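Deliverable D5.2: sample structural annotation.
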Amino acid sequence: MEIVFRAVFIFFFLWVVTRAVGRSSLGELSTFQLLLYVTMGDLVQQSVTQQDYSVTSGVLGVSTFALLTVAFGWASWRWRRMRPLVAGVPLVIVKDGEPLMEAMQQERMSLDDLFVQARQQGIRKLGHIDLAVLETDGKVSFFTRDGAEKDGAADPQPSAA
């Protein structure tokens, strides 16, 4: 029965932590944040299953991670120079229809990965791409040439006819 009480306590504690961290932090997790949350899960598991015999250690561990996540988010908002360190910087990977292999190798991105991303955006040929940017969240933003826009992805909010 003690495990149930521990689980209920940790459940409500995590609920409070996720509300305090904020929706923007939970909506799109960076790789770093995902690893933090997975690690927090392990800390919680130890507290709930009595491997540590202390709910306090789980609460302290999760609180530390939550405070650090909020602090990193605040620091990147407050000081512009911190943003590249916390979130990374976007990287141009295609320019004028030509893939920049050195930039792609730096990020360990293959041509096949690029083709998959382009197809998902409705782009059939690399020659249609004016610019492609690997964003800090791992997604690729494509900017197509004027003549190739009809081959691109559909407008998510088409104008009323």
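Annotation notes: The beta strands are 91-95, 98-99, 129-134, 140-144. The chain has two domains: 2-85, 89-151.
The annotation will be released with the project's public dataset once the embargo ends.
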